[in-house]
Specification:
By secondary structure, the chain is an alpha+beta fold. Helices cover about 55% and strands about 15% of the residues. Among the domains are: about 100 residues, no CATH class; about 50 residues. The chain has 8 helices and 5 strands.
């Protein structure tokens, strides 16, 4: 018996409504394959019983979690260190040895105001040991922990819900593929293709959310801030001072003073003495000229 267009469209609509309602369920008991309902009528004999769900070729399937607990762990650690760059490099090595990696990093300031921030992804199984090792990442200097905060989030229910919705959407996808093989007109084919595209888009979206939950649970996130130790006024005043250096500077100053006096003596002997002698001679000549002139100007005395 040939399937009519009206029967085919009605069957496709009922399948989509039933599977959409099943996909909205958040109970773990709905995680099994969705069953496609059978309808009495002229069209059912040719369509037959639709197959149960099977993943599409090349598609990554997230396993059902069941009773397994899924925990997302994040942390913030603020440390004050005397050598921020060396401490950050040491922490990088600790995380790398544990199988983790650096997902983000940044720095600001310079010298005693330098702040380095690094975000690490750490395998959840090695979280505690890695965190304890980072507590000692002093970079060969001093270290002080200023702040530490750890948060955990149980996402088991969300993961189970996503698994159930993905299972039912894949069932809808398989059912629509079977319906498309029975379509007899271009209009019916396009209508089923539109619904199939919508379902595949929902599968990709939910699968991305499910993969993200799995990644966050498998690798915990830790952000560490390495803050340079502030230099105090006393430390700044005494920094670089030594008695030997002061004695050397004083001796150098005394030598310079002696060199200056010696230079002055040389100038006085070589330049000052001849100039001074010349000035004395000029002064004596001037005085002699004045005396002679004064005597010449006096009138002779009479008897």
């Amino acid at each position: 018996m040939r399937v009519t267009n009206r029967s085919l469209a009605a069957f496709a609509l009922l399948v989509l409504v039933g599977l959409s309602l099943a996909a909205c369920s958040t109970s773990a008991t709905n995680a099994g394959p969705a069953q496609v309902p059978q309808f009495a009528g002229a069209g059912n004999k040719d369509l037959g019983v639709l197959p149960t769900v099977a993943p599409l070729a090349g598609e990554t399937t997230a396993p059902l979690i069941g009773a397994k607990t899924l925990i997302i762990k994040t942390g913030q650690l603020d440390m004050q260190v005397s050598k921020p760059e060396a401490s950050a490099a040491q922490a990088d090595g600790i995380v790398g040895a544990a199988g983790g990696y650096v997902s983000a990093s940044g720095r600001s300031g310079d010298a005693d105001k330098l702040v380095i921030s690094v975000t690490y992804r750490i395998p959840v199984a090695k979280w505690d040991a890695t965190l304890a090792s980072i507590h000692g990442a002093n970079g060969g200097g001093t270290l002080k922990i200023l702040n530490e905060q750890i948060q955990t989030q149980d996402v088991t229910a969300s993961a189970v819900d996503l698994d159930a919705r993905l299972t039912n959407l894949r069932a809808a996808d398989q059912a629509l593929l079977v319906i498309m093989t029975k379509a007899t007109t271009i209009t019916d084919t396009l209508a089923v293709q539109t619904q199939l595209t919508t379902v595949l888009g929902q599968i990709e979206q939910l699968q991305g959310q499910r993969n993200q939950l799995g990644d966050q649970a498998a690798f915990s996130t830790l952000t560490v801030q390495f803050e340079a130790t502030q230099i105090t006024q006393t430390t700044s005043a005494t920094s670089g001072w030594s008695i030997n250096g002061t004695v050397d500077e004083a001796a150098a100053t005394l030598v310079k003073v002696g060199q200056g006096l010696a230079s002055l003596g040389v100038w006085l002997v070589i330049v000052g003495l001849p100039v001074g002698l010349g000035l004395v001679l000029l002064f004596l000549a001037y005085r002699f000229f004045r005396i002679v002139r004064r005597r010449t100007a006096q009138p002779p005395t009479t008897i």
